[in-house]
Known about the structure:
The complex is a heterotrimer. By secondary structure, chain A is of the alpha/beta class. Chain A has helices at residues 18-26, 49-55, 65-78, 100-113, 125-136, 151-164, 181-190, 222-228, 256-269, 287-301, 312-315, 322-336, and strands at 4-11, 32-34, 41-43, 89-94, 142-145, 170-177, 210-211, 213-220, 234-243, 276-280, 307-309, 338-339, 361-362, 367-374, 378-385.
Amino acid sequence: MKIFVTGIGIVTAIGLDAEENLNSLGSLTTGISRSNSSGLMLGEVKLSNEELMNKFQLPAEDYSRTSLLGLLAATEAWANNKIDKIIRTGIISSTSVGGMDRTEKYYFDARKNGIANSSLMTHCNGRTTERIAARLGISGYIGTVSTACSSGANAIMQGARLMEGNKLDRVIAGGSEPLADFDIKGFSSLGIYDNAICKPFDDNRMGLNLGEGAAFLVLENEYSISISNNKPICMLAGWGNATDAFHQTASSPDGKGAALAMTNAMVKSGITVDKIDYVNAHGTGTGNNDLSESMAFKSVFGNNLPAFSSTKGFTGHTLAAAGAIEAVYCVQAIQKQTVLPNLNFTTPMKETGMKPATGFQRANIEFVLSNSFGFGGNCTSLIFQKA
Amino acid sequence: MYISAASTISHHPTFRNKGFSSQLRELDPASELIRPDYSDYIPAMERRRMSDVQKMSIACSLDCMQQAGIGQPDAIIVGTSMGCCVNIRSFLDKILSANGGPLSPTSFIVSTHNTVAGQIALLLKNHGYNMTHTQNSLSFEQALMDAMLGIKEGFQHVLVGGADEEEQSLYNMRAKLNIEQLHPVSGASFFILSGDHGGSEGVNLLDAGSYGLIDSITDCTEHFLLSGGQSAKDIGLVLYAVNDKKGMAELNSIFRREQLFDYQIVAGTSFTNSAFAMHYGIDMLLDGSNPGLREHKKILICNNVIPENLGLILLAA
Amino acid sequence: MEDLKYELKRQIIEELKLEDIKPEDIQDDAPLIGDGLGLDSIDALELVVLLEKYHGVKIMDEEIGKKVLTSINTMADFIVEEKAKAT
């Protein structure tokens, strides 16, 4: 079955929609800056909750930032699609912390003042997906996956599998993640921040920067397109998921899970390794991930590593949303027939000598591979193809 | 698709107790989770970081693999509505008490919803497919649908389960949602779904469905049964969880009273309790003594714990 | 010094939730991470927090951390040295 991407929507630190994001990528403009509240380098979306709520004319106080960012990206991707009974439509979203941005505020208040607050109900991961579904008029398959930093890619993969399994004809799939104190403090306790903007794949990389954002793709099969008349942007050719099973948070030295995910995706796509024209890496900028992922590249591609880069120097690491945000970037790479840049790279890692692309590079881009790896050793790769 | 194994830890003596379905009585409100000796399943160095939801899930998973006689599953899929919420709460408490000082990382690291599925894979050194579904009361049904897709795609054996741990903030949340709380429980139920029954008699999973933001459980239920070539009268027993009058009225209009059994009376309240109901149903079908199952050896699990959500699971002997 | 070492062992057992281990079971010079006690990288982070929380001493980078967290002896020595610097 052919699975077409017919819509994209995205909000990150480098733009409030697809066009703004692409312009920032092209002009090498990062969205990471020092946060006033925490003093950390963060990729913040330049919209407050109030501005988001006004945009959607929502009642105050009732929506988590996760839902708001998700609504913004999902409505852009959904565009002029209509709900009707003959196209079986579903939504799969993803998030690590659900409505935590509100939960933690109310929890801290409750602990200090002893009052239980009913807004704790917006914490539930599935709730944010329901909000988006309700807004778009989707009922039926409404799902949420949560596999830490591979979540967004897994949501897209689930959507495709449900279509191939003849359960759905059209899916809007992606993820949303706010900057919650829970994550900011959590990653701080792990000591893996860079105090400057991160340097993925650089020998002197110091760690990651957190970011927030949301992104969605609309996927359709040929039957759905025959009715919706949407124009295909590109195809989702394949996907692969595997487990590293090395440690709860660290990746294995040989990148076994990552290599398996990439290989599974290529097998699913029916292509050989030499067909990949560009890899959008997970590339968080941590010592561990970038080395492990590079080792995985070595075992999969051997001496024929295609052009690759990490875009996390633009957006920060957006956790669950990363796989979806980077999927949108891969679609844009195909649209514009260009490799995407890796910011802040100067010195190749001494272990590998690998050099990522550092600017827009026009090329014949037919197949693009996107990697996302999460806590729990969850590794997912998606492959997009020019239509 | 064949169910090669089933294992449940709950507030009843269900763990490693085949035939438990005939012994089950109404849940005692004062009941607590009945925990096996986890040291039989999990080494101390790994166990120390785990909350109930992880320990239960691992014990049930290992029990399943022993029952099915397999070394490694091809996939590990978990449905959990609130994940490792004890660890989430623990980290929130640590943020408060650290008050800007040094922060202990352990509860953060094991707080992501996929920690359960990830820890099972880590313990087994399993490199296969691994997924976690977190869609409120439909988490387990979506995990099952994922497992069924996997079998169709070529997986031989899929380890699939539903697990949740009870926590005070969950209780408060359900009260806000006006969900009647018979008795909030923790629990885990895991299964091995296999593509091939290897010649043994047992129970098959015919279908699973997940319907969110629905208006009518009648439409969804009839569509679900019809697409599998079934009708309401083919069902021997309907294990249901319905908490509102409208839902109950609809259920009564689709099925006869003798077909219906409210599983929350024995299972208590949990967003992933349809997993308990599935094991309960499997045990009843294998036991065969329930008069309702004499003529039609099929059980439908109808999970309407949240009125706008409907989860359906169809089992057959 | 012996009191400090005993205290460290007690704190490590409590903070890292090491069941079935008593302070007497931990040798002063036995490796803590990997071999010996068998702690992992997450435990190492917890030990850094423990040192700051209970003893007011900070490990400033990974290199220092690797040396200090080798054994009970090295941890106790570090605490004593740092406290002497402060006074």
